[in-house]
Amino acid sequence: MDARTMKDIYLPEPATLLEVKPFTEMETYYRIKLDSGRPLGHKPGQFAEISLAGIGEAPISISSSPVKTDHFEMVIRNVGNLTRALRTLKDGDRVGIRGPFGTSFPVNDVMKGKDLLYICGGMGLVPMRSVIQYTLDHRDDYGEITICYGTKSPSERLFTDELENWGKRKDIAFLETVDRGDDSWKGNVGVITKLMPGISIDPHKTVALVCGPPIMYKFVLLELRKMEMSNENIYMSLERHMKCGVGKCGHCQINGLYACQDGPVFKYSEIADVKEAI
Amino acid sequence: MSYYKMSEEDLRQWVDHLLSKVTVYGVQAKGDRFAFNALNDSSSLRLDYDVTILPPKKYFLPPKETLLSYKGQKYDSVVDEKPFVLFGVHPYDLAAIRQMDKIFSSDNNDIHYMTRRNNATIVALDVQTPSAHNFSGNMNTAVIEGEYDILLTKVDSSYVVDVRTGKGKELIKGMSGLVTAEMALVDSRHKVWEENKSRLRAYPLKPSLSEIPGLLDKSREHPVWAEKAELCFSCGSCVMVCPTCYCFDVQDEAEWDLSSGKRIRSWDGCMLERFALVAGGHNFRKTKEERYRHRYYRKGKYVAEKVGEISCVGCGRCVSACVPGIANPCEVYNRLKED
Questions:
Q1: What ipTM goes with this model?
Q2: Which pTM does this prediction carry?
Q3: Residue A184 C-alpha, separation from nearest chain B C-alpha, in angstroms
Q4: Residues of chain A positioned with their CB less than 8 A from the CB of B270
Q5: CA-nearest residue of chain A to B295?
Q6: What's the pLDDT tens digit per position in A207-235?
Q7: Is A162 left (phi over 0), alpha (psi -120 to 50) or beta?
Q8: 3.40.50.80, 1.20.120.160, 3.90.550.10, 3.30.1360.110: which CATH number matches A115-237?
């Protein structure tokens, strides 16, 4: 192949931050548009690489439903050099974007017509919101929808307006908990798995979707097993450092799988025997 | 395909002729060891080297390279299009390049690696002096068929010059007084090859190559990982000298004006402690044992499945680079086979 006609897989395209809004002490919300006007074209659950020239690049989940095509959204926790620098940006500032990359939740096949059980821990809500929004945008295509969301404390809750809206909706069940409450918190207290025994599902017609911190998965899986969910009907988004996004750099490898190409969304039955996965 | 016969003197004249036209990387002595370097003239070129400190992979995937340049938030690709000749590559290193070509051309084509690769002409050289740790005979890479543009084989005191490709023809073009090699000489290379296949076996390897992925499959909990890893310094020497390692890191380097700069790719390695670390501090391979085992699974299974052959070519560089002496793949595979 003639190299000159090849596309550079590492070249970001310019994008503009339409809106930058601090969410919590640690997390910032970004509404982003590619300068070319091209829709990002992502599927629910995929991620993109965001760049700030001179600082670096990092993989970040896309948090909005693909139904919105004129922009996309990310929520980024301030945990490193790049994310700290991103937090100082203002509306109208420019960034670089590569992607979308990776696998997505099977909204158009496996999930269709099924009851959906979402389990989101902490930042796990960020990628999950893209699929939650998608299924709410196409509400009639799915059966019962149950969303469980747990954070460490009330101040870490993300998308609070949306959470309030989900709580009010009659066509979904929304359950929330915090590890530690405060004076203002009237809701459930305890880790996310405490919510699960109270949920009644039909394991044969339910698809469970799980995303949260690394420690959360094995405990959630134990609860799902108690609910008689089969591994075939559990999907999870796993976190790794998908540095290049294109299956080369090696950082995101989970045994023989690349989280950036084979994931980040995996069907649990396909990784149940992959030792490094959970 | 054409065959010529050259004396070592002819070869050096040829290299000097090439140097008047193009960059030539060849092997020179470096202290009591050897390294690929840009040649100034043919006098320092060594054709009797045993192994180089770093593999010639460095000319396709340099230890540090610029992927992009930026000004403000606008990025541009930086692609190195300079043609060059890689002179005197041993078969096991060529086998490694064959694997790297697959990695960087399949799925998502890497324009940076592939441009250098497409602009390179490779003159291969059959091994004359075995290194102390070379086990390429075990790995089926002591001799290679194809992958090169020209192959040099020393038979007695002369060289057979096997010109295989259009690029190879281009390289030999303009050389005066070329002598066609007689078939008997061309055929006598088989003796050299058979000899190299049997003598490039510094260590015995008990399992067959096709057995290795299966052995690994059932050996995840084998005690050898912990035993070896206990001595590991996590220094990454084994991955830095490996011709089939290609993990990398990417960092930005700003100029003093802070508005322009470069995005740099540099070698990284799964044996290094921070390799699988994510933001927030969780390390997905935090123990030496996990990292040591991962490297073996990558070579013998994960990457092997991608490139269609075990991702170790038996160069033995890791064996000599490893200070605590735990990097010998033959020892590990033999243990898995015995138990």
A1: 0.93
A2: 0.95
A3: 28
A4: 250, 253
A5: A255
A6: 999 999 999 999 999 999 999 999 999 99
A7: alpha
A8: 3.40.50.80
